[in-house]
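Cont'd.
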Amino acid sequence: MRGAALHAARRAAATGPRHRPPPRGWDAWSARTSEPAAGRHPLADRTVSQALHRRADEIEAAFGAIAPTLQELAPRQFAPEFAAHAAATLHARLQLDIPAAALVASWTAPLDLRALHAHCVLGTFCRLIERAFDRGLSHLVDGEPADALIRRWGFHAIDITPCADGRLSGVTDYILRVPPSIVAFRESYAGAMFDVAQSVRHWESVELQRWRTGTPNAAEAPTRFLKIGVYHFSSIAPRHEGCAAHGSDDVRAAGALLERLNQFDQAMRTLHGARCAVATLLIGVDTDTDAIRVHVPDATGRMDILRHADSAILYDATAHLPREHAKDAIRDAVAACAGVPADDAETEGMRWFCGYLLKNNIGQVEAVRDWHRGRYADAGHTERLIVVGDPVDDVQLRNLAFQAQMRTVEEGAADLDVGIRILHAHHAPHRLPVPILAHIRFDPRIPGAAVTAEQQARRLAAAILARHAALAARGGLSVAAVVRAADGSALTPIDLTASHGDASPEVHP
Amino acid sequence: MRGAALHAARRAAATGPRHRPPPRGWDAWSARTSEPAAGRHPLADRTVSQALHRRADEIEAAFGAIAPTLQELAPRQFAPEFAAHAAATLHARLQLDIPAAALVASWTAPLDLRALHAHCVLGTFCRLIERAFDRGLSHLVDGEPADALIRRWGFHAIDITPCADGRLSGVTDYILRVPPSIVAFRESYAGAMFDVAQSVRHWESVELQRWRTGTPNAAEAPTRFLKIGVYHFSSIAPRHEGCAAHGSDDVRAAGALLERLNQFDQAMRTLHGARCAVATLLIGVDTDTDAIRVHVPDATGRMDILRHADSAILYDATAHLPREHAKDAIRDAVAACAGVPADDAETEGMRWFCGYLLKNNIGQVEAVRDWHRGRYADAGHTERLIVVGDPVDDVQLRNLAFQAQMRTVEEGAADLDVGIRILHAHHAPHRLPVPILAHIRFDPRIPGAAVTAEQQARRLAAAILARHAALAARGGLSVAAVVRAADGSALTPIDLTASHGDASPEVHP
């Protein structure tokens, strides 16, 4: 549909603004930056881009300080009072509290700086989680609250499954720029291959709340549960830097994910009838530019891997247009992609939402053009750590973390292995171990849940080390575990050196 | 409360039948055996006992035929045409279809009769599952359907967690004698230590159905979700033949389970408010006699590990009474245990249900007295196999299967180890391997669920063999895997010899 998008843009340019008054939801974001700062695209929200850029700089700086600090400390490790000095330095430079006792070195037992590096990476990640970035970015939701807005567009909850690939590590904050309040679930899997039954359970938990407590809205309200799948590809090196789980083949990646989304839709209809009302949306991300392809559903809700509206193309086609014309061009491109007239009432909500994502992403496309000369210098992987277990979204940035959700390594082994293979490839040349964080969330309202979460985190960490024992034995892995009562609350580190039995069966002589 | 029960029985004997007309639910079962067959206790339902006895005989005979058949075949294995003969014999005697090619022996490669034994045990178990016993036993639910009856008693779903111990392998059919239709969930764990969050999910799935489809009844109906925990103890050898997971200490077993039930109750109140309406019930089973202790909740729903109504005591106290007097004695014992008057309206439903279980169990107490001289000859473990994964209830019998529910060995390792330790102890002296069945159920309405289930079954089997590799290497374990679309449907065996990758990480040189 690239042709259609361009055609629509031209048509918009030719015919001027539509006469049909835009709905308030659409207006909300169009009214956002009434006076855009200096820049090129009339729809790119530079205030948001600048805030995201500052946040990215802060995150990069935090991790970037680790190696120079350790490099500076290394040669002094045999000096008197080194441990206290090192602890003070790490506190001052990295804001990490590492007990001096752990920093004592002697010529027979020098500091394990590789392990310390991984420890600092994991510690920095945890510190940034608790740093409480303003992820809501108020300008993302001005006009009216975004959650009210998405309900107006016909959705009451959004469940996003991106690929575990670290280049999608900023997918909701940077690429899609959707506020956390509208994302009910975000779970990542290699190749975005989510479990259909698990998504059904997500729907069920939301639905029960709607029935029982009327939140986020009443069960009778004619809104839908939206499941979004996000695959990715590389425009620079499509055969090499695409999705590893799908052999770096974007047709395969999109096709497999679309099939999974269709399975979810089918399962929901069979299990809960036509009234269950779910919507699905397939999105592709070019990890070189952060541009997106939105596979706008047609009037029957069907999507096609070859039919999409592309933010990069729309950016170029509309950058020169007056603001209102640019908006119309996007609307027309989305309608053309859906194969419906621009005033089709049935598909209106989904089309507005697709337009909202494309417009948001135009800001990111411009940010990458401005700050990375249009394409990221690192087309491939430079993730700093792997996160397994429950999702962490508090700190987001492209190539920050390979993140794969799993309850156990037994089930998540394939995803874990992909992550370790990827990180090992770019850590090993620097003789650095791969840092892995096992992160388990629990509901503090359930008695005993904290203990269960700790056991699970401990088990997960042990299983990672057991599966990759050879790599761990030569210092190629560094695993930490944390539990957390809920999003936004403090992390509790788990002491993995403490013995908790259960490691060996030992049940028969 | 043993004293109270006796006292109540005596009081009932002294004062005759109550004048208050019993509710219809209670009548339903009291009317059941209007003309009891020859026997001792007026409330023991001998029709049911005899049907259960026949079923037990059939199950025992099926497993009992395995060893003699193999013993007979063993010396002939080098005779000409043996394979075809053996296949025909196994088909005729055990109703198992084993291809002749798998039964070819030579003097350099004799039959692995140990493995064949395990194979036959697993095959027989699967055959019996598909044999479709009439588990509903129509006389269990005559008068009116039991599910309507439990709703009248104030419950809309029952979730039972017994211990994984094989001596509770007949808990719902034999010991509690509740029809399958009223058991929404039955999951076993070592020491009955269920996961509270998982029980909350059970409640949620039932609740959503009530809201959306009005099944089993409408969400507005003032009925409750009943969670039952079943621990066990041994009256013959309390220190040795009790629950292994709780150090054969019945106070610990009951206390830990009561705490878990209270945690569930607390979690539900916090998560879903007082309106969530769950009830909990603690039951103890004497595995030597199948008699039960019912820890009847008091007016506030609270239970006490020392306060219970005992079926064995009630049996003796009421065996000589006229039928109506015996019923009153049980009612009084239950009311005394709850600490409420016999006409207390608030606790009526739960008390009727406790009375129903005690009355049912009196039939089992008598059956054990009749057919096992009051106590089982095998106080300890003689389980024939271990079942892991999803629950199997189609074929039940004391000491048939150690059954522990788990998604992965990573999470269920402790339960698996207990099971293997127990079965190894009584299989090893006979030089027989421990048969383990990995059983995964799936919802056929979810596209792709069959494939996911097969992967899970395969993973589970592989993880069992990996964890107990040394035992497996010397032929001490035999693992099979099956998947099943739903209860009552056919089992699909999984060929574990086929390679499916994923076993080794192999991700770094």
